[in-house]
Structures are given as structure tokens and as C-alpha cells.
Amino acid sequence: MSHVINYRLNQFSWAVAAIMFLPLLFTKGMFLDGLTYASIARNLNEGMGSFWIPSYTPYIHPEFYEHPPFSFALHSVFYRLFGDQAWVDRIYAYTMYGLSVLMIRRIWALFTPSVHRAWIPQLLWTLTPTVIWSHQNNLLEAPLSAAILCVVWLLIEGTLKRNYIWSALGGLVFFVALGIKGPVALFPLMTLPIMAVLYPEHRRAALISMLLMVLSFSVLFSYYYTYEINFSTFFNSYLNKQLFPTLLGNREQSGDALSSLIEITKQLALPMIVFLILRIRSGRVYVLRRESIFFFVLAICGSLPFLLMDRQHHYYFMPSMVYWMLGFAMLLEQSPYPWSIQRKKWVKVLSLTNLSLWLVGAVLSIYFSKSPSRDKHMIRAIEQIARNYPSQSVRIEAIEDSWELCAIGARYGKVYFTENTDVALYLVSETVAVPSNYVLVDTFKKFPMMLYKKTALE
To answer: Residue 420: which of 60, 61, 36, 65 has the closest Cα?
Structure first.
């Protein structure tokens, strides 16, 4: 009966994901960064920009060096397959979620014989707030987390099974992970050193795996840097325009270590509460085994560097959250309570719950399909401008005060905003007086801006 319960709980973990992600599948509206990345990927598919020189808008980052392009290129494949639809952005992120879950389950199977309980880390990770939010909003952390998990799995697989081809493949995937968001993908390098310390019996294999992983990565990177001029140009531009200024504190500064520690604690609240409840109810002592220590140390390696930066956001910690959850899951798994419940009614309850969650998720996705999930009035204004004035640029007063408007315009209407006074259209707040050579041409429902057009007379 316990295996039946765990089988239903595996289904439950996917049903929970469905209720978290499906309702937003066909809606428009995402966080600013997700809109930006989606526009770059769509542009790449349509020939605006190239792989090593991606482009955002003709006026904002016409050459985009803020992040490496691997995720944009992969995202553009989804546009090629499904067309320029708003739901493609979430399909891409949700696919990355599925790949991450696959890697979580593969890693789990390497450390415990209780493969049927792989739902424990999956469910804990799925219910982590920053994980839900990052996938719903198409952030780079979604593909980054999948790539890093793949690297970690390949390195552990190659080491434990002495099949070093996996370790060499880990170096190739590590190159991809760095190509998604740069140095924030470096912490998987600590996987094998941590394993060598905690698992002396695998120390020699870990050293061989590490050497092969570094060698394969170095060969691939050296080839591209030496023979691909566009790669070296992008790499140098990325270093000089984004990475070095960020590390030196010359870019946006936000957040602090204390607020980030509070945020991490909030993300870890669920597994800590579950652990305390099961500890009290079971009456057993949970031993901090080296499997849990391994994942906790790796999670610290992924979280700690951000605490030392001038710019900190909660989603920066998302790729490391999975290792916190694996560590807690290894703790929770060692006690049979309550995973071995011998009650048939729980099978029926879980079966009905799973079916209900899937149905509710599907119904809500259809119900919300005609309504933007956020910024709906702004989105509808942009769509109105795009219908009435297709392929025309629009002037605004200050781009730095309207990043969300620019992102929505680029993604949902190909309406590109600029501070250039030479363009004919001018979008301005209702309270701002405009020059006499502009005439009002459009207003918007529940959106406090008005569209003017320049007349022939100056």
C-alpha cells in the first residue's frame, strides 16, 4: 500500500505544478525582465539581431550585451515551432521546469534507493515561491536552473558510476549554463570538491571527473574564443559593459544582505515547518546524513555570493533553492512516517485531489485566456496603438521612467518607444501640456496617457 500512496503522491506533485502554472498559460503580462527576454528571442527568430549580437529594440539595447544569448536562442526555437503567441513565453519556461524536475529525480535516484519518493524534493521545490514566480515570468533563472541541475547530475553520475563520459559532457553543459547568465552558473564547480570531502571512497573518481569536466569546457571555450570572432566580440563586450561594472558596483544597486537572508528564510519556511511537524509527530530523531550535508553545502555555495553583491533580488537565489530542497528531502525521506500510511482511503482522496487540481488548472487557464494577468490596461493601450499605427515608433518623455511600458510595447505590439523628437507619434500623460504642433489622435480606456501626432507645420 505504501508504494501505491507514493505513486499517488508523485502524481500529486505534478497536479500541484498544474494548478500553479496552467492558469497563467494563455494570459499576457509578465515581469519586466521576462518581457525583455521574450522580445529578444522573438526578434532573433525574425532576423532582428543575430545569435552573438541579439537586439532588444531599435532604441533600447539595439545590441544587447546584458546577458549571454543561449537562452534567447533556445527560446527563439519555440517561436519558430509555435509562432509569435503570448503563451509561447510560458511554454518555454514551463518546459524548463519539466527539465529541472527530470534532473531532480535523476539526482535523487543516485543518492537513495527510495526512488518512489522522488516526489518529496519535487513538491518542496515546486511550492517554493521564487520558483513559481520565476517560471511564471519567464526569467533566465528558469533555464539556468535546468542547465545547472543537468551539470550537477552529469558530474555526480560520472563520479559515482565511474563513467567519465558523463563528466566530460558536464563540461559541455557547463558552457551552456554560463551562456545563459554568466558567472552566476559557476557554483556547480563546487559539486565534486564537496563530494571528495564527504565521500572519501569517491575522492579519486571525483578528481578525474573534475579534470575531464574542466578540460572539455576549456577546449570548447578556447575553440569559440579563438575561431569564432563574433563570440570573442560578444564576450569582451559583455565583460566590459555588464559584468565588470556590476561587480564594481557601478550599475543598479538594490537590496542588502539582511533583506536577502530574510527572503531566503521565507523561501525555506515550508520545508522547515514540514520537518518540525513530522519530527514531532513521528517521535524519531532525524540524523543529518552526509547526503543532506552535501546538498546544503552546495546550496550555500549557490546562495552566498549574492549576499556579497550590491544588487540583490529574490529570484537571484532561485537556482540554489533546489539544493536546499534536496537537502531537506533527504532528511524527510529517512523516516517512513507518513509515507508508509496503510489506509486505502488516502489512495482515493489523493486520486480525487489530483484529478480536481488538473481540472481546475485547465478551467482557469481557459477562463483567464482572454484577460491579461497584469498591466492589463497598459497592454490593451499598446495593442490599440499597434492596430491603429502599425510599425511606427512612439516618443515618450523619459525612457528610464517607463521601462515596463517599453517592454510591453516591444513584446505585445512591436511598438518601440524613444526619446527622439523626430518621430511623429507622442505618448504623454494626461496632465502634461504638449506643443502646439501636435494634435490628439487617440485616448485609452483606464490608461492615463494620450497619444498625439505631429502635424506638418513646425
So the answer is: 60
Q: Where are the alpha helices (DSSP H) in 70-202?
A: 70-82, 87-111, 119-126, 129-136, 141-160, 164-181, 191-198
Q: List pLDDT tens digits, range 245-281.
A: 877 777 777 667 788 888 899 999 999 998 888 888 7
**437, 458 contact by CB (below 8 A):** yes
The C-alpha atoms of residue 336 and residue 317 are separated, in whole angstroms, by 31
**Enclosing H/E stretch for 212:** helix 203-227
| Tens-place pLDDT, residues 51-73 | 999 999 999 999 999 999 999 99
| Nine-digit cell string for 118 | 522522488
CA distances from 319 to 156, 252, 298, 332 (A): 18, 21, 11, 21
What's the whole-number mean pLDDT along residues 8-34?
94
Mapped onto helix, strand or coil, the DSSP state of residue 180 is helix
Pairing of strands 394-395, 425-429: parallel
Q: What is the C-alpha to C-alpha distance for residues 156 and 106, in angstroms, rounded to an integer? A: 10
Those residues with Cβ within 8 angstroms of residue 41's Cβ, 6 or more apart along the chain or in another chain: 71, 72, 73, 75, 76, 78, 79, 92
**Residue 208 φ then ψ, to 5°:** -65, -45
Contact present, 229 and 192 (Cβ < 8 Å): no
Decide: 69 and 179 in contact? Cβ < 8 Å: yes
Q: Where are the alpha helices (DSSP H) in 22-86?
A: 32-45, 70-82
Grid cell digits, residue 213: 569536466
C-alpha to C-alpha distance for 259 and 265, rounded to whole angstroms: 10
Q: Helix count (H) and strand count (E) of the chain?
A: 19, 5
Bridge pairing between strands 449-454 and 425-429 = antiparallel
DSSP, res 183: G
Cis bond before residue 338 (omega within 30° of 0): yes
Left, alpha or beta for 446 (phi > 0: left; psi -120 to 50: alpha)? left
* Gap between the Cα atoms of 212 and 190, Å rounded: 15
Confidence tier at 312 by pLDDT (50, 70, 90): confident
